[in-house]
Every structure is written in structure tokens, then in C-alpha cells.
Amino acid sequence: MCQLDRVSWSVRKTRQIRMETFRTKLGQVERALLDAEVFCGHGYLSAHDEAVALLLGASGLSPDQDQSLLDAPFPPEATTQLDIWVGERCVSRRPTAYILGEAYLGGYRFLSDERALIPRSPIAHLILDELNPWLSVDCGPGTIVEVCCGGGNLGIVAAQVFQQSRVWLADLDEPALLLARENVALHKLASRVGCYRGDLLSAIAPASVDLIIANPPYVSAVEMQDLPPEYRHEPAMALLAEEDGTQLARQLLRQAAKALRPDGLMVLEVGETMWEMEARFPEVPFLWLDLPQGGSGIVAMRAQELRDWSAAGIL
Q1: Mean pLDDT of successive 10-residue stretches along the chain, which has 315 residues
Q2: Strands of 143-147's sheet, edge to edge?
Q3: Would you call 111 helix, strand, or coil by DSSP?
Q4: Which of 143, 169, 189, 288 shows a CA-CA span of 20 to 30 A to 157?
């Protein structure tokens, strides 16, 4: 190839790059994610959704874009950042939420990084429905505690839905609590949402809470070994529970029986550990919720049920 041909090819290539649209870039990124066989389970349902998020993030655009953007030119100055992020996602398998530093749950934006699990609990959908029909408090719960709160996303969603409630975010891990405080500040809820360091519900006074939201660690050591690489980026202490994954959930059942007010409610997520919970408590009639949005291993338990089971020695 002569020098003139090289220059001509370079000009054509430059024009091609400049003419790339969001649509063409989206196809390229989605294909890269599919070829890398990334696992989509951290706030995004598909490689397509993750590709959209990475493109918009690299371009400095908010998620609320319409379809017309697809045919708009992709900004060349965003290409380097996008390439770096796609490399992180495909090679390092770092989750997109950590790459972008943000995640969405229930329509709300949260800061997200390696200090806490990426927001994704289906409990958020139940809260958005005001926990109907399980919550029996007519005026909404007066006091809410999210235990093992991580970044505090479920408690903050609850504070947005139940705007008269006082919410406490509890976690044993100080870095996670710092992230929760940052999210409280992001949502301007410091007047109603507080954070404290505590071991499950041990610091809660008896009969003082109307609603407990609990998504404790419930992955067994054996299951941890089989998780996709993306989970290695999340804090292990937020995933791993001793024995068969039920240790913390079992403690919560006993503590909640004391901490809840008479008409209180606990919503507990244990995922696939639901089967081990049934084996541990064969006399407890767990009613696992069937969620239209997906998800498993979530149960709503009333205070009186927990107290009855505790008095009978079942817990």
C-alpha cells in the first residue's frame, strides 16, 4: 500500500468512526458481552441492558433516553472510556453497577461500589406495593429497620413509600454503612433515616419495630465456589453464611419475635436457601411469595406467628 493509499484509508476509517451511531456501538458492545459470556444478575436482565447502561454512562447521559438516540452520532470522545469499561466487564468480569458507580432499584438511583452488594432484591417490588396485603398497620409502619442493609437501598425505598415512617439502616460492616449514609444523603432523607452499626437485631428494644426488612447473607461455602466470577467482586461477608447458609436467617427469626410490635411484620429473603430453612424448621409453615417480577425465597411473617412459634419451641 502506497503512502497516498494509507492516508486515504486513514481518512475513510476516521470518517467511519465519526459516523458511528449509538445503534452501531450498542450492537458492538452487546456482542462483546455475549462473546465473553458475562453473567447478568446484578441489576440488569440481559447483555443488551448492560450494553445500554455502559453506552449511556460513557456518554454522560442519563438512563431516560428515547429511541431517537439510537440514530444519533456516538460521541468519539466517549470511545476510550467505553473501551476501558467494556474491558473491565468482559475480562475482569466486574459488574456494570460497580463500573458505573450506580445502580437502580424500584426506580430509584443508588450509589454502588464494592463496599456493599449491588442493589437487586425483589423485596423492593413488595415495598413499592406497600406490602399489601401483609402489612396491617393502617397508617403505615411507624418504625422500620432494614437489617444487613449494605448500601441501604431497601430501607431507603421504604422511606420513600412510607413517608411518615422512621427508618433505621443496620449493618455490622462499617464500610457498607458509610455507603448507606452516602445514599441517605443522596436522597435527602437524613431527617427520617438513620444508620447504626449492629449485629442483626441485637440492639433493638423489645416490641419497638413495626416492619423488619431482612436480606441477610445466605450463601453456603459450597455454593460460593460455584458462583459466577461477577460475585467475586462483591464483599464476601455480605454473601456467605456459615453452615448451610441458614445461620443468620435462623437468628433473625428468633430476634424478630421479640423486636416486633404485636401487629408487626418481617419480610425475609433467603433465596435458594429456602429449602434448607424448611428442613431446619419442619413445623414452620413458610409461605414463600410468588413474585410476578421474579425472585424466590422471600417470606412475609407476622409478629404473632413468630411469637407463637417461639413460645412453642419451634424456633
Answers
A1: 37 50 96 97 94 97 93 94 97 98 96 97 95 80 97 98 96 97 98 95 94 94 92 94 85 96 95 92 92 84 94 90
A2: 193-197, 166-171, 143-147, 209-214, 260-269, 298-302
A3: strand
A4: 288
Q: Which of 241, 239, 236, 237 is nearest to 252 (CA)?
A: 241
Compute and round to an integer the Cα radius of gyration of the chain. 23
Enter the DSSP assignment of 63. Answer: S
* CA trace torsion 19, 25, 28, 33 (10° rounding): 160
Torsion of CA 47, 51, 54, 56, to 10 degrees: -140
Question: Given the DSSP bridges, would you call strands 166-171 and 143-147 parallel, antiparallel or unpaired?
Answer: parallel
Which residue in this structure is represented by grid cell 440481559? 46
Domain positions in the chain: 3-100, 116-311
Q: Residue 247: what residue type?
A: Q
CATH of 116-311, one of 1.10.287.3510, 3.40.50.150, 3.40.50.300, 3.30.420.40: 3.40.50.150
Going by the DSSP 8-state scheme, the letter that residue 90 receives in this structure is I
Predicted TM-score (pTM) of the model is: 0.90
Cα distance between residue 19 and residue 30, in whole Å: 19
